[in-house]
């Protein structure tokens, strides 16, 4: 995992304001976080440069693009081929994320699909990647807790 500078309580307050109002202007964020406009601009730029703030992509719902099914594909990979397999998986548009794991499973592949037939196709594409030895696909029936960061930001802001 890439090394990033640790977010302090001031950055956390700023990010909470941005989380609550993602389209807010710098002046509005300064007001909401109790910081000066120049401080907000400098801190946002630093957070962006450090990689602490990810891309806008996470906010786009795949179902709005015609991909309502979410699945997780556990993948076993031939030794020493993880990087090659990860690069091949990145070329499959329906692959949203790939995590390297410890234990019996090497990769956890987060995918989306248009329907069951499409999921079968996507799972086949993953299995066809050279170096992939075995897969197991689990369909997400519903999301129980969505991606969130605000509770951690609140804890950091309180420090």
Task: Walk me through what this model shows.
- The protein is an alpha+beta fold.
- Helices cover 40% and strands 19% of the residues.
- The protein has six helices and four strands; from the N terminus they run H-H-H-E-H-E-E-H-E-H.
- Strands 2-3-1-4 form a four-stranded antiparallel β-sheet.
- The radius of gyration is 19 Å and the shape is elongated.
End-to-end Cα distance, whole Å, is 25 Å
Unreliable parts? none
Helix-and-strand structural type:
alpha+beta
Shape: elongated
- SSE succession: HHHEHEEHEH
Overall mean pLDDT = 93
| Main sheet attributes: strand count, strand direction, barrel closure | 4 strands, antiparallel
Helix content: 40-55%
Q: State which percent range the strand residues make up.
A: 15-25%
